[in-house]
Design goal:
alpha+beta, Cathepsin B, Chain A, 2 domains, 6-stranded antiparallel β-sheet, 4-stranded antiparallel β-sheet, 7 helices, 21% helix
Length: 329
């Protein structure tokens, strides 16, 4: 029998393509491509159309809950998506798909899904048990249980700044607004709002480097005070959340210096976010977050303020004042 070598190679490539993504991440979702029977045995939900190159009995398996040996509840996710700790042997698939649980003994570290925009974008996955959404929620767009839903992003105002879009200016040590300019971007939003000057964060970033305000991997508190003064703002650091809430109610802006923590996952390292607007909802004081890290989709999203309410204050550093109230001089 004569075998056409070219046809044989095409056949091999086709077979490889058909079966290549089994046990891999779904296309467009955060689950894993496995057989429907395996998914059912792990209590997951199957979704069609997210494993296009696999056999018909292989679908995207997502929303798989898991339990560690010590009783902590979690969610099966790819290890790069877990900001808590991972547990082996509790999830289907390969070595990269594990049970993600909280490092502090609470519920799954995927509850508020750090770096996890809703499937298809346009919002942020939140835990309705501890976070409010002031726009609208959508089901089926986030991993986890029924309490984990997509908070559809509010209207993005014209003054909002997504730091990831600013890469033109590179500092002498190779930094850009995109990778080191969250504080500058937050300050620029405040300048735009309070003075009406449509300033670019790259302008501030360049000035900060020229005047020696840049302190390594970003801008320190005093650097933001000095740059704010140059552009008509008084920047006052405080740890008084009552003063923060009252300032926001008056239409002032606030920069919050965030530390890594386990509830809201604004960051895995140091980060600044911008607050603008506040309200009392169900007797809880809440503030609107405009995170310059646009990938998180926390744009015009309402969060509780105080630690006593499970609010963003829990992400405050242990020492020092980390809320900066911005007002026009």
């Amino acid at each position: 029998m004569n075998i056409n070598l070219k046809s044989f190679l095409i056949l091999l490539l086709t077979i490889s393509k058909i079966f290549a993504s089994v046990n891999d991440k779904c296309t467009g979702r955060n689950g894993i491509c496995i057989t429907t029977s395996t998914c059912s045995s792990y209590g997951g939900k199957t979704y069609s159309g997210y494993c296009p190159y696999d056999p018909s009995n292989v679908l995207c398996c997502d929303d798989i809950t898991c339990t560690a040996d010590d009783g902590r509840k979690g969610t099966c996710v790819h290890t790069s998506q877990c900001s808590g700790s991972t547990v082996d042997g509790k999830c289907p698939g390969g070595s990269d798909f594990k049970c993600c649980v909280s490092s502090d003994g609470g519920s799954s570290s995927m509850d508020t899904a750090y770096g996890m925009p809703c499937y298809g974008g346009g919002g942020s996955c939140i835990n309705l048990d501890n976070t409010s959404c002031d726009t609208s929620t959508a089901s089926g767009k986030c991993p986890g249980g029924s309490n984990i839903k997509c908070c559809v992003a509010g209207k993005t105002p014209a003054w909002y700044i997504n730091q990831g879009k600013y890469t033109s200016y590179v500092s002498p040590d190779g930094a850009t607004v995109a990778n080191s300019g969250c504080g500058i971007s937050s300050l620029a939003m405040g300048i735009r709002l309070l003075t009406g000057v449509n300033i670019s964060p790259e302008t501030l970033f360049r000035e900060g480097n020229q005047y020696g305000y840049y302190c390594g991997s970003g801008f320190c508190h005093e650097d933001l005070v000095n740059l704010g003064r140059l552009h008509g703002l008084r920047v006052s650091w405080t740890d008084d959340t009552e003063a923060v809430f009252n300032a926001l109610k008056k239409g002032l802006g606030v920069i919050f210096h965030v530390r890594p923590e386990s509830k809201y996952h604004f960051t895995k390292g140091g980060h600044y976010i911008f607050l603008y607007g506040a309200k009392i909802q169900d007797k809880v004081k809440k503030v609107y977050v405009f995170d310059p890290n646009g990938y998180n989709n926390n744009i015009n999203v309402l969060f509780p303020l105080k630690s006593a309410d499970g609010g963003i204050q829990v992400a405050q550093k242990q020492t020092g004042a980390d809320f900066a109230i911005l007002q026009k001089k």
